[in-house]
Amino acid sequence: MNNIRKNRLKDQAFKVWGIACTLLGLVLLLIFLGNIFTDGIQRINWSFLMNLPSRSPEKAGIYTALMGSLWVLSLTTIFALPVGIAAAIYLEEYAKKNKLSSILEVNISNLAGVPSIIYGLLGLEVFVRIMEMGASVMAGSLTLGLLILPIVIVSTREAIKAVPKSIRDASYAMGASKWQTVYLQVLPASFGGILTGVILALSRAVGETAPLIVIGALAYVPFAPLSPMDQFSVLPIQIFNWITRPQPGFVENAAAAIIILLLITFIMNGIAVYFRNRWQKKLK
Amino acid sequence: MGKEKNENVIESSLKRKYKLQAKDVNVFYGDFQAIKEISMDIKANSVTAFIGPSGCGKSTFLRLFNRMNDYVDDFRMEGKIFIDNQNINKKKVNVEQLRKQVGMVFQKPNPFPKSIFENVAYGLKIQGIKDKTFLKERVESTLKQVALWDEVKDNLNKSALALSGGQQQRLCIARTLAVEPSVILMDEPTSALDPLSTAKIEELIHELKHKYTIVIVTHNMQQAGRISDYTAFFYLGEIIEFDKTNKIFTNPEKKQTENYITGRFG
Description:
heterodimer; A: mainly alpha; MetI-like fold; 2 domains; 11 helices; B: alpha/beta; Rossmann fold; four-stranded antiparallel beta sheet; about 40% helix; about 25% strand; globular
């Protein structure tokens, strides 16, 4: 009887502890969000989105940084998506399970943990200097593409792994080739999972600052990029730049820019959730 | 010289009677030997049942006939498998082509997470057939063949996963039949189904044998007795006895077979 009561007590204690841990993260986030919103929300209007950077905080806008971020985001997607998904398909469906593939596997997981500034140094050397792209959108996107590649590969592999073997068996037994099985069965069945992983990886890319500073992205650009070879700025760099200024007006601007950046990430995550739910419903 | 040629002729005319043949087959998974020196001839348009306790190699042996073991790590095989006198393990054999000829139904119903129509049309579509009327006709005729048409004809676009287990398994059989194979391998096709669904599948097997050569692995002794013409008893990777089902069940040669069939072990 005593033992049962003790177990029940432990159970209760752990529950309370768990709730406290969950709340800790949430409360901190809420405080941060509240802070940012009270500082920045009144600054958000059409001209803030459409204005070029300026020395006076009331005239300054995020147009160039926003455009820069969108450019970088799209090009990063174009680079990282096909390469990452193809690599994951190869590792999961084609590669024989041997020493080499397990070395590859461990290394890819490790790459996902390499600090982003290291990728910046790599991008500076390879893309900016050797390939002579300069501090362009292209160089920045390729660098971020490399940065999120391991994440795309790992999450795509997890999604592919979750497809039951029985579906592959059925497809092979019908006389499908490996590619047909991957293309017609495995990819559609893992689409939701792959998409979720990809969007989470891109959300990370959109918030990256360090590697872009290293390759030489500018804090002040008077124009939005018009081609992949133009110089650029991105939202996180713009935010960083504003926060370092002494005038209080720029703090407001920074808060407003953070809201926009958060909005972009939330929308992307929302899309991921939407597609995952739709895909799950389709499976049923 | 003349004598040897004569013998060859006799041998090949004997062979012609057999749809599937295994010759001195050994299978290894790494160091473990799963199949030991099995030779077997299976007649066309017959139902052959493989029985035996779990892990005796009957599923492994079944999967040799459509080379489904190719994807298993550490798999190694010795000996020869013939289908219509063709050695199917030769390099030039196209595995995809082979599997169109030798269909397979699995233990757990495994329809694709697609519509009923797409499931049945899959095998044809991967062959590059796009003709809509042809696909429609073939889907209808195969669904009728497995007696599923009346149950699903109004919602062919519904997900196959919405069907009951028994319906799903009949759909899987239809999917296999749609590419017109000549052999159907069944790996415990009713072990996940209720008795009523099982009865329907057994009835179906009975009808299908006029057009196809069927090999079925089963744990269910009564099922082997009900539906098969020949029965092979496997034990620890060997065939203990292979004969007409009637003989196996009423008057087996080996004591071991009798013990298994009467339920004294297994």
